[in-house]
Amino acid sequence: MKLLAIETATEACSVALWSDGEVRERFEIAPRRHAELVLPWCDALLAEAGVSRAQLDAIAVGRGPGAFTGVRLAIAVAQGIALGLGRPLVAMSTLQVLAAGANARDGDRVLAAIDARMHEVYWASYCIRDGIPQETSPEAVVAPAAIDVEGDGWHGIGTGFSAGDSELAKRLKQQFVAIDAAALPHAADLSRLAATAFARGEIVSPDLVEPAYLRNNVALTLVEQQAARVRKETTR
């Protein structure tokens, strides 16, 4: 099975190719360069592996939450490739992808958090089962002070732990065995999660993929932009 994975929801631009269990990845912290890098990286990975686009079985995409421009880019690129090839998409939560990068074992609990700016973080919690982060609290965007967890032995991962003068890390550190506040999601982890999801039949038509913005004001802004374009076209 061959799968191309795209994750650009944060300042990290990342693309990976899963080819029958072998993973190749390009990853770079490259704010504002995602659009420049993502397609050339896709082509380079395929060329290195000797895999043509026509040999791909599916495209995987990190659907957010994260920076809305990055989320939109990943989905647009993934949709374009998938529609052009007539292949399905596997859409995964960027927070789940981030949680998959924690050094956690089966039974461990992981809190994944991404700095959402505006004094908020995107977060969700997971339990590792059969190597897969299974969601135990839903994705949300809140102030760090609003996040609480029960018990100890947690693993923390993501830039949300360094947001707001590391408020989340400082307040909950006694309940965590490890916190990686610099970690960003990797397409390699996305490809592994997506390969398992694909095997379970968890695919979607490219035109049905929905971004996870979480912030209503971002969604409203996008609707307003679309409405403005429609008004402009109808007045020509």
UniProtKB/TrEMBL annotation:
Q: Which domain of life is it from?
A: Bacteria
Tell me, which GO biological process terms does this entry list?
tRNA threonylcarbamoyladenosine modification
| Keywords, sorted A to Z | Cytoplasm, tRNA processing
Which residues does the UniProt record annotate as the domain Gcp-like? 28-148
Q: Which Pfam families match?
A: TsaD
Protein location: Cytoplasm
InterPro entries recorded: ATPase_NBD, Gcp-like_dom, T6A_TsaB
Q: What is its main location?
A: cytoplasm
One GO cellular component this record assigns the protein to is: cytosol
Give the family this protein belongs to, as stated in its UniProt record. Belongs to the KAE1 / TsaD family. TsaB subfamily.
Q: Identify the NCBIfam families for this entry.
A: T6A_YeaZ
Q: What is this protein called?
A: tRNA threonylcarbamoyladenosine biosynthesis protein TsaB
